[in-house]
Every structure is written in C-alpha cells, then in structure tokens.
Amino acid sequence: MRAVLRNTKARVGLAVFGLFLLVAIFGPLVVDRILQTNPREIDYDHLGSPPGAPGHPLGTTIQGADVLVQVIIGAQGSVFVGITSGLLATGLAVVIGVPSGFLGGRLDRVLTVFTNLFLTLPSFALMLIVAGYIQGADWWVIAILIAAFEWPGGARYLRAQTLSLRNRDFAVAMLMIGESKTRLVFAEVLPHLTGIISAMFLRAVVAGVFAEAGLAFLGIGTTTSVSWGTMISEAQQQSAILNGVWWWFVPPGLCIAVLGTATALVNFGIDEVSNPRLGAANRKLIKQFERAAARLRARPGTETVR
Fold it and tell me: Over 60: is that where the pLDDT of 280 sits?
C-alpha cells in the first residue's frame, strides 16, 4: 500500500475517487441542511438557464431544477451502486476462482462449467428483464443484480492465476512439508493476487456505475429520485440537445467519465508497482541499457550482447 501511495497516478486516482465517495456520503446532507433545497425544486424565474445564473452555478433544467443539486444527489445512487456491486462481484470472483484453480479435480470442473455458463448468458439483456420486473427496487437490489453478471470474467482470470501459483516451487515445497492447503491459500496465494484483485474491484466499480447509468437511462432504476443516469435520460426525453441545454446532460456524463478515469489511474499505479518493468524509473533504466547495448553491437569486431 505504501508503494502504491508513492505512485503519482495512484495518488491522483485515489484522491478523485475519494472526492466522489465523500460527495456520495455527505452530499444529501449538504443539500438538505446547508443549501436547504431538493433536486426537484423548481425555480420558475430560471427555466433552462445556463451556468452562472443567480443561485445556479451549473444552470437549471428545462423544468427549472438546479443541475448542481441533481449532480450531487445523483452521486449517491451511482457511486453506492458501483461500490456495492464491485465488492459483491469481486468477492464472488475470489470465492469461486481461487478454490477452483487451487484445488482442481471435480470441484474445478463444476465451478468452471458454472462460470462458463454465466459467461455465455446475454448479461445486459437479462439484466434489463430482471430490472424491469423489479422496477422501483432499492439501490442495493440493483447492485446485487449488476454483481450477479459481473463476476464470471474475474473468476476465470483468478482461476488461471491461482493454477499458475499452485505449480510454483514454493507452493509445492510447502505442501510437501505438510502445510495445510487452507493456510497456503490465505498466507501465500491470496497475497500474490492482491494487485490483481484490487484492480479487478476498481474495474467492477466502474462497470457497476456504467450499468446503473445505462439502466436508469432506459427508465429502469431504483427508488432513488435522481441519479446520473436519470439526468441524462430526462435530458434526452426533453430534447435538451435540440434545445441547446447542454449543461443538463454534460455534467453527469463528465462525472461518469472522470470516475472511470480515476479508477484507471489507480489501476495503472497498481500495475507499475506490481510489475517493475512498468515503472517509469525502471523503464528509463531499461531504455538506457538497450541503447548502450545497441551502441556496443554497432562497434566493429564486437560480439553480440545478449
């Protein structure tokens, strides 16, 4: 963790991700207690006003609702669904993928068939059907639904990585001296997979935010009154593009894009820490060595440097 926090990309990504999380947690309190308003309150004097209108830094919708307030309130539904679905999907991937790769045998065959079955399902289509059936459910129900279709790819990748670790010399040696498989998994295998699991979780969070926004855009969502997806959906239904009210749908779209960029930066930082060849300083040393080797090979009468 200290190595990750020393990485500039990871620090920037974590700072942005933490900011969105703070807005999701404390945003509704700020809107209710400090701003003393709500995302559906109508300002009849400023209908469809552009950014900078009195009392509306990001402008208002065609119905006169404050865009900034809706963005703040919408963060709660989108971010909470993304984090919850990411945790559940990553947990399922670990619980299914690691035992499948390490234990092998009949358990591996059963879990592999189960995973491949979910991989072949048309996930988004099924998600639409189920979400439409439970229309108006709580946000955590939508998070569970999204997680149910996010875990198979991660489980398959973790199985392959665990299978590789099981055949390493250290694992074989520990089993030969009588170490239990359970302790070997928790003490050796899972620590080796920490970087992969953390990156997998961040990708699952972004996938959850995108899925929630997609469902809300199609009119299928939670009981949360406003989310980033519902803002974009309402803007599309009210022809915001044709009316030139770009400030209605651009802020929630930018929030989704920035959140995805932040998680990508954290993943880049984790990759650089876990893979020394990806580090900036190490890449510079490798390039210097390659240039020196090329100059040495170019000298007449010099043998090839390997």
Answer: no
